[in-house]
Queue: 2 jobs
Job 1
Amino acid sequence: MKVTQSLITASGIIKNGGVIAYPTEGIWGIGGLNTSEIQQKIYLAKKRDDSKKFILLFKSSDQLFEHFPEAEKYKETINSFKNSFTTILLPLEKGKTAIRIPNYKRLVEFLDLIDKPLISTSANISGNEVCKTIEEIENIFKDKIEGILDMPLGGEKNPSRIYDLELDEYIR
């Protein structure tokens, strides 16, 4: 497992099909490209039920609308959450998809280098507390992920709030 402070090195790990741990605004996350292989790898690493879904992180609302043109009808509401630490449940034909456009500058820079949406989940074994340090991540995910992006968290104290666009309310 490679621990790096370089956004370029970490984005290279992701682009080459790896999974890394990285800081978000409030907690450590793990993620990779949105492929079934990477999803399976994360499910196994976290000992997570594969019925649980991931959050898709986008570098911008433009990138989100490129991937989900049907989200355009929620553009004003989605854009109103740009500078908040909020995950949005986006209603789509195939069901709801959790999306987030981070407001943590370093994470946005990282996503910009990857230039694709990132599947994301908390850095923990399913049902346990989220890892709080790089050492915890190294111990728990030893040979299960390829890297750790060594940067500070973004300053929030809790996981993101969750807003359901269809219900038009916060559910967490």
Job 2
Amino acid sequence: MNSFSRFKAEYGQMDEELILNWTEAFFFNLMNVLNSFLSHLDIGEAVCRLRAIPFDELVTEQLEGESEETIRIAVARINELREMELEFMDAYR
């Protein structure tokens, strides 16, 4: 693990808000890209394909070198965001 982290506050403590903000930006940027593909599908098929995307693995890969705690927080948040998106999409089925 590197001693440098983009998620550390002024005194070297982990800043959870920075992690959550990064995770949300990552998710919404990814969804912008995915929506260009998913928008051409039936809503049911789009939901199935979105469920198959390994968001946790993508976050873990992007945060390579960060602490396990940082990755755990980011993975938990991206899973929450994905579930909210899926619930929203399921409402249109």
